[in-house]
Amino acid sequence: MEETKQDHQYLKVKRFIARRLRSGKLKPHDKLPTERDLSEQLSVNRNTIRHALGILEREGRIYRSGRRGWFASGARLAFDPSKEYVNFDKLSRQQGFQPAWDVKESGICPATGELQELFRTAKPVSLYYVFETGSLDGQSVYYSECFFLARVCPGFLSKIVTLPMTDVFREDYGIHLFQKDLLIRPVSINSRISAQLGLPAHYPGLFIQRVKSSQNNLIVQVDFEYWRYDSIELRSQYDEI
After folding, report:
1. What residue spans in the chain does CATH classification 3.40.1410.10 cover?
2. What is the tens place of the pLDDT at every residue in 185-235?
3. Between 1.10.10.10, 1.10.1740.10, 3.20.20.100, 3.30.70.990, what CATH number should domain 2-72 receive?
4. Which of 128, 206, 224, 229 fits 145 for a cystine, CB–CB 3.0-4.6 Å?
C-alpha cells in the first residue's frame, strides 16, 4: 500500500509540471518553482519532489543549472551527423534559434599523445587550437576544442574572428574539408567542461569527435565537442529507393 501511495505522489508532481509545460505556463528556460515551494504547494515530501524532477530531467523536459535551480527545457537542435559539414550558425537559424558562441581560449600547441595519433603524424607538429562555447537563445549548449594543422593555414586564428572556420579554409587556403572519421558517444560531462556550460559536474551529455581531411587526404582538423544531452538530437534522412 505504501508503494502505491508513493507512486501516486510522484505522478502527482510529474503531471503537475508536465501540464504547465504543455500549456505554456512554463516556457523554454523558465525557472520552475523551488523544491520547497513544490513541496508546500502539492503537499508532497521533498524526496518525492526530487524523484519526480529527476525523471523529468531524464526525459529531457527540464534541466538543472548548478545551484540556480530547475528550468524548462527548450527545443532541441536537430542535425545530421553523417553530413560532411555542419554549419552551426546556419543550421540553428534555419530551425528558429538565435545562435551565439564565445571563444574561451585560442593559441598554438604541439600535437602530442592522442592528437598526434589522430593527425597521423610520426612526430609532434604545431597546431592552432580554439576552445569555445556555443549557445542557443542565450542557453549554453556545447563546449568544443578544435585543433588545426598550423602549417597548412598560417595566420588562421586572426581570420576566424568574423568568418566560419570552414569558409576560411576554403576561401583563404583553398582547402575543402571532408569528414574522415566520426565518433559519437554518450558521456557524463566532467567538472572542467560542465563548469564552462554552467552545469553541475557529471551532467549527461553527448561527445562528438570529428576528424577532417583536405582534398589531398591530409588530416587538417580534429574537433572534440561536448553537448548537453537535452539540447540536441541526431537525425539522418535517406532518399526513397
Report:
1. 77-234
2. 999 999 999 999 988 888 889 999 999 999 999 999 999 999 988 888 888
3. 1.10.10.10
4. 224
Q: What share of the chain has pLDDT > 90, as a percent?
A: 56
What HEC string does 23-70 produce? HCCCCCCCECCCHHHHHHHHCCCHHHHHHHHHHHHHCCCEEECCCCCE
User: Hey, CA dihedral for 110, 114, 117, 119, is it positive or negative?
Assistant: negative
Q: Which three cell numbers stand for residue 132?
A: 569555445
End-to-end CA distance of the chain: 55
- Give the residue among 97, 116, 105 at the shortest CA–CA distance from 143: 105
| Top CATH class, 77-234 | alpha beta
Contact 71, 172 (CB under 8 A): no
Residue span(s) of the chain under CATH 1.10.10.10 come to: 2-72
